[in-house]
Amino acid sequence: MLERIKSLAEASADLLAEWRHDFHAHPELSFEEIETTARIRARLEEMGYSGMRVGAAGIPTGLVVDLNPEKTGPCFALRADIDALPMQELGNPPYKSQRNGVMHACGHDSHITMVLGAAKILKALESELPGRVRFIFQPSEESPHRSGAKAMIEEGVLEGVDAISGLHVWGTIPSGVIGVHAGPFMAAADEWECTIFGKGGHGAVPHLAADPIVAAGAVIGALQTIVSREIDPLETVVVTCGHMEAGSTFNIIPDRAFLQGTVRTFNPDVRSEMPRRMERICSGISQALGCRAEFHLKNVLPATVNDKAFTEEAAEVARKVLGPEKVIEIPPSMGAEDMSYYLQKVPGTFMFFGTKNEEKGIVNPQHHPEYDVDDEILPKGSALLAALAWNFLSGKAS
Hints:
The chain is α/β, with parallel strands linked by helices. The mean pLDDT is about 95. A hairpin with a 2-residue loop joins strand 1 and strand 2. It has 2 domains: about 1-185 and about 305-395, Zn peptidases (Aminopeptidase, 3-Layer(aba) Sandwich); about 190-300, 2-Layer Sandwich (Alpha-Beta Plaits). The longest helix has 21 residues, at about 270-290. The radius of gyration is 24 Å and the shape is elongated. The chain is about 35% helix and about 25% strand. The strands form 4 sheets. Strands 1-2-4-3-5-16-6-15 form an 8-stranded mixed sheet, with helices on both faces.
């Protein structure tokens, strides 16, 4: 069966490249993917799919469809995110983005294509499948505060699903190589803000003021001591201040400073302790310097945790489909993904699929304005996803 799946995938290689180029040329932002959804629907209808559910949480984007919806037995889900990034494409492929300031710089065009490819393969094997496959084309992954995964789960997209999988293209892994990791794979991402209130004054007489910029500088440095001196060195934690705003000109001490950043963790216990630790430092240092701090931390995305047994089995399927040399163990990433919400509900795995091909000049990481994907991976990714579905359903049926 795996050989049949690979053969079906390779037979569609040119079509898959054509589909990706079309999606790449017409990117849309989070929860604005109306044309993208229509294109996905059209491709699925051409394959013979029907009964598609469009939209999530009142937003008319995203799509879900089942293969063998009337069949009893296990259900396996494949997920692709479909939104693009708010950035200008600077490369010049023939399929360059036709929308000013919007670009598929994270490779979601290839995610859509590979899941569509898997849908095409599995449609050809429909009568032999011992169960159902659900294809989830999810909006708004790039806008974590408005997670499309969370919205779709609330709409019931995982009802009846027994396991789930997905791929994310990865610009630093060689083209066609799959990176796997069992357990915590991508970090939880949280957002923090701190406003430091001081006393404004003239820059020439600082003793008559309480300088919130000085306090902010001390706070930024001291926050790093949480990682270096309060957390077990074997834990992985990142505290970043990515935005600072204060003052209006060179000779005025302002009355406040604003800091904003992110916290990345894997361990839920460490994550739950971070607000208390950070608030203590922000408030304590600000008070010591004659200022006052208000600190807030907002949980954004949970960690993406791959099921150990499922991931090990998926890696074995990947070795059979792609070759043993094309499957590598990779370390966890401090990036975050709303695939995490699905994996909180059902077992499954999320894997990185390499796109780097120096001979073709495809060397940039995601979110780079010249990011592109090696089209040669598309049939391979489609074959792998279809094989994962077949392997799971066959194993459950037996």
